[in-house]
Amino acid sequence: MFTGIVEELGEVVGVTPTAQDSVLVAVRGPLVTSDARHGDSIAVNGVCLTVVDVNGGVFTADVMGETLRRSALGALRAGDPVNLERAAALGSRLGGHLVQGHVDGVGEVLAREPAPRWETVRFRLPVALSRYVVEKGSITIDGVSLTVAEVGDDWFSVGLIPTTLALTTLGTRAVGDPVNLEMDVLAKYVERLLGARPTDAPVPGPVAS
């Protein structure tokens, strides 16, 4: 579990195919590797990956085909910057919102509107995911916990403060770039529970004696 507060802007060192539909990705991140061990979880652009090895500030992780198909990690190349966050510790402050690191789909940068102290960025999202996005609700973009400013049928916008622009990949994402999207898990559970309610079931009548 993560919070969507990026700890470090890392760099992809290499991407090595390991099978027909999987790769081994190596990422440099001195902060997140300072206490990392084999088996730990680190979110890379919002995708929860399991550490395979740590060596000199670089960690490696396996990325299977399902993850490559459902996220934008398949487009990573050596030299690319990536947002990094270690798994949250029990008892730590929840600065963002509850983030699983399970990407729901890939969005796209539609427009950027600079302002003196912040920037408004609009993203396209798959229509099937739009029902989970509400104005002033939470959404995770490339591992960054953000608040939705506006929402449409297939788009939404957020405001990025100077810190987010400077310390995450969202500051340099260009129009047309893909981004990983994770919806608020609470919305998905509520939908599932309400959909499973037997609202049309007949009301039991009196039992004949």
From TrEMBL:
Gene3D superfamilies noted in UniProt: 2.40.30.20
Please provide the record's keywords in A-Z order.
Repeat, Riboflavin biosynthesis, Transferase
Record's function text: Catalyzes the dismutation of two molecules of 6,7-dimethyl-8-ribityllumazine, resulting in the formation of riboflavin and 5-amino-6-(D-ribitylamino)uracil.
Please tell me whether the keyword Cell inner membrane is annotated for this protein: no
Query: Which NCBIfam families does the annotation name?
Result: PRK09289.1 (NF006767), PRK13020.1 (NF009566), ribE (TIGR00187)
Which domain of life does this protein belong to? Bacteria
Q: What is this protein called?
A: Riboflavin synthase
Which residue range or ranges hold the Lumazine-binding domain? 1-97, 98-194
The record's listing under InterPro entries reads:
ATP_synth_asu-like_sf (IPR023366), Lumazine-bd (IPR001783), Lumazine-bd_dom (IPR026017), Riboflavin_synthase-like_b-brl (IPR017938)
UniProt repeat feature Lumazine-binding, residue ranges: 1-97, 98-194
Renumbered to this chain, the signal peptide range is none
Metabolic or biological pathway = Cofactor biosynthesis; riboflavin biosynthesis; riboflavin from 2-hydroxy-3-oxobutyl phosphate and 5-amino-6-(D-ribitylamino)uracil: step 2/2
CDD domains from the xrefs?
Answer: Riboflavin_synthase_like (cd00402)
Catalysed reactions, semicolon-separated: 2 6,7-dimethyl-8-(1-D-ribityl)lumazine + H(+) = 5-amino-6-(D-ribitylamino)uracil + riboflavin
What does the record give as EC number?
A: 2.5.1.9
Q: Which Pfam families match?
A: Lum_binding
